[in-house]
Amino acid sequence: MIKVLKSGLYTSIQDTGRVGFRNLGVPLSGAMDSISAGFANALLNNKKNDAVLEITMLGPKLEFFKTTQIAISGAEISPKINNISILNNKVYTINSGDVLSFGKLIKGVRAYLAVKGGFKTEIVLKSRSFYDGITSKDIFKENDFINIDKWNPNKINTTGGLLKNKIQFFETSIIEVYKGPELELFDKKQQELLLVSNFTIGNTSNRMGYRLEEIVLKHSKSMITSPVLPGTVQLTPEGKLIVLMKDAQTTGGYPRVFQLTEKSIAILAQKATGSIFNFKLISI
């Protein structure tokens, strides 16, 4: 069991998402940066779909009541165990009574805390991922409790630190994309404009989508409401782009000009408001 002493800014449980329910209008959800979440689980030899704690910018303060192992990947938010600094991408043993806290944000936006065997929150529609209206919580609050399994200390994990030099993937400003279904509605010059322009993440961005500030290509193209996915880039009539993220709706009515790769979604998820980037078209 873990007690939430301080909740942080936006702390939630996420796994690989709620797959197979989009026909019912249920968003995928899941870790915004699935690569970093996967790193944290891999360090502990967890299953890929084991639930992790997604921590956004300002970390929580957590008191542990069971012995376990932990690993943190993704954003660097100055983690500490009992006020002693620890590193990302390394396995640590947590004893009953220990307190994990976070401090100054150094790099990235979202950190992922994994525990041995994953967090044991409720499963709804085959996933533990928090989503308002589906799970009983959308974020953790002070004095909440989180269930975990007790770790057997006789099973020593020896993988700590092996991923230390493999987590800087999100520092790039290049976001790789595939052609979207409606990109061809626009002529070559207009398509090129979308690729040569720099884009800035707006201050209304969240787990549902990132709104980009620039007015790049006003248009009057219309289309029938069609399926969208996390990573779909929509072009609004006013000429602005919206990049759909993990809690995005399942259908949309704006032209789908690009589709991000899973790695690109992870990279974008680690960029803060005001960050500047550009798109790079790749082939399937």
Automatic annotation (TrEMBL):
It holds the Pfam family CT_A_B. SMART domains: AHS2. GO terms for molecular function: ATP binding; hydrolase activity. Residues 23-284 form the Carboxyltransferase domain. It comes from the Bacteria. InterPro entries: CT_A_B, Cyclophilin-like_dom_sf, PxpC. Keywords: ATP-binding, Hydrolase, Nucleotide-binding. PANTHER family: 5-OXOPROLINASE SUBUNIT C (PTHR43309:SF5). This is Biotin-dependent carboxylase-like uncharacterized protein. It comes from Lutibacter oceani.
